[in-house]
Design goal:
- By secondary structure, this protein is mostly helical.
- It has one domain.
- The protein has helices at 9-18, 26-46, 61-64, 72-75, 78-98, 103-115, 118-134, 139-150, 153-164, 166-176, 179-200, 213-229, 237-255, 278-293, 295-302, 305-316, 318-338, 351-375, 394-414, 425-437, and strands at 47-52, 55-60, 383-384, 444-445.
- Strands 1-2 form a two-stranded antiparallel sheet.
- The radius of gyration is 22 Å and the shape is globular.
- The protein starts with 8 loop residues before the first helix and ends with a strand.
Length: 447
């Protein structure tokens, strides 16, 4: 087709929107798109770079303005994504069971869909890291810059691990219903209580227990998606869950050891997200209950052609948007610092700085567009060619997932910098080893 006659992204979205079956719950897609957009803008706002007297500093808004910690109750929307994930995973797992698919066949497409878009990002940062080392960029600068760029990948590591457990968490849901949320929440609360009790007693021998809550807290939030799909959060139940979550959250931050901020703050002894605490679970209940309470009018609004087409447009590139937005910001900041601090001379958290965030976000959004165009195609999960090989065995998918998740978790925690070549080659290789073991790229083509 002549490129000049190719339909625009908006027209393609309109065309896809018009073909949407009436049975689809459009609110699920809207919440997925809206939550990722909030994450993107939130990350762009939190980074508070400042060049003063020729010295560049990468500040953190939450560190500079304690009042902004309350904003994280709206900006920390990863619980919404897990609720949406629970809704979607319950549908696909039910269908897989009804059609006689194996666990491996069900997991295969999800593994490839999550893993494939991450690999180009890691390749890019491997090249950037090696190039920065050759150019003499300070290792600390590379570490911080790459860590900021790759920190969004922590979510994928946790989400993939939650997906691996779907057969068991769904079985728990079928057995206990909403009680399954309570069971997981109680286990998470127990781990928090033991760990924080050890802190207050001057010990840290059981502090590692808190890291287990990556599984229990996020699995509990994921169960809320099962409840939504099963229509157990309709009518008065949704606002009741939201009110209960808000009451629990207020109690935890005012009476317990939990900070107000729902994301990590530099220098703060306790983080609600690294690892997650039951305060984050309470936030998920609050947000989920509130948003499901308005599902009816929201779905009627999404019946509108333009509102639904905009949702389709965002979801078409949602992984690319999520994965590359921080890289675009880091590259722009690096360029501005190299230009003598152009545009970075406004003191962060001041009135004029807040007004400057409008053009700041606009510029980043424009710069992100070519990345969406270049890397968006990796979101389309490849399907095996005819005769292109069988589904990998379940053990390979499980092992590949663990290696992939461990690798990107390490990169999200400490970036790519280090090692003889300027990058941590071994750590950077882990996600690729996991992807190969899990069968990504085997005899496939893009749809």
């Amino acid at each position: 087709m002549d490129p000049s006659k190719r339909p625009s992204a908006w027209n393609r979205a309109l065309s896809m929107a018009e073909r949407t079956p009436p049975t689809r719950n459009r609110y699920v897609d809207f919440l997925r798109a809206a939550s990722i957009m909030v994450v993107v803008v939130g990350h762009w706002l939190i980074a508070a770079a400042y060049v003063h007297n020729g010295k560049a500093e990468l500040g953190h808004l939450l560190d500079l303005s304690p009042w902004s910690h309350w904003l994280t109750w709206a900006l920390q929307v990863m619980p919404i994504f897990f609720i949406v994930g629970g809704f979607s995973n319950s549908i696909t797992w039910q269908r897989a069971q009804q059609s006689g698919k194996t666990y491996a066949e069900w997991l295969d497409s999800r593994f490839r869909r999550l893993v494939a878009p991450v690999l180009p990002l890691l390749i890019a940062w491997g090249i950037l890291g090696a190039g920065a080392g050759l150019l003499g960029v300070a290792p600390a600068t590379l570490r911080i810059g790459s860590q900021v760029a790759l920190v969004p990948t922590w979510f994928l590591a946790v989400y993939l691990m939650v997906i691996l457990a779907v057969p068991w968490t769904y079985r728990l849901w079928k057995s206990l219903g909403l009680g399954s949320v309570a069971v997981l929440a109680l286990v998470a609360a127990l781990f928090d209580a033991v760990a924080f009790g050890a802190f207050s007693a001057g010990g840290d021998g059981v502090a590692w227990l808190r890291w287990l809550n990556y599984g229990f807290v996020w699995a509990a939030v994921h169960q809320l998606g099962y409840a939504w799909r099963a229509k157990r959060l309709t009518g008065w139940r949704a606002p009741a869950v939201g009110a209960g979550g808000l009451a629990a959250l207020l109690g935890l931050v005012h009476l317990g050891p939990y900070p107000i901020s729902m994301v990590g703050v530099p220098g703060q002894a306790i983080s609600n997200s690294l690892p997650p605490t039951i305060a984050l679970l309470a936030l998920g209940m609050f947000q989920g209950g509130l948003l499901l309470a308005v599902e009816g009018p929201a779905r009627r609004w999404l019946d509108g052609r333009r509102a639904w087409a905009a949702t389709v447009l965002v979801n078409a590139k949602i992984m690319t948007l999520f994965l590359w937005h921080s890289t675009v910001m880091v590259l722009l900041l690096g360029a501005l610092v190299a230009l003598g601090g152009l545009g970075l001379g406004i003191e962060p958290a001041t009135g004029i700085w807040w007004w400057s965030r409008i053009p700041w976000v606009a510029v980043l959004a424009v710069l992100l567009l070519p990345f969406l165009a270049a890397f968006g195609r990796f979101e389309r999960a490849p399907r095996p060619q005819a005769g292109g090989g069988t589904t990998p065995r379940a053990w390979r998918l499980l092992l590949g997932s663990v290696l992939f998740c461990f690798g990107i978790a390490l990169l999200a925690l400490d970036g790519v910098g280090g090692g003889r070549l300027g990058v941590r080659v071994g750590v950077l290789a882990l996600p690729f080893v996991g992807a190969v073991i899990g069968g990504v790229g085997r005899g496939s083509r893009s749809r």
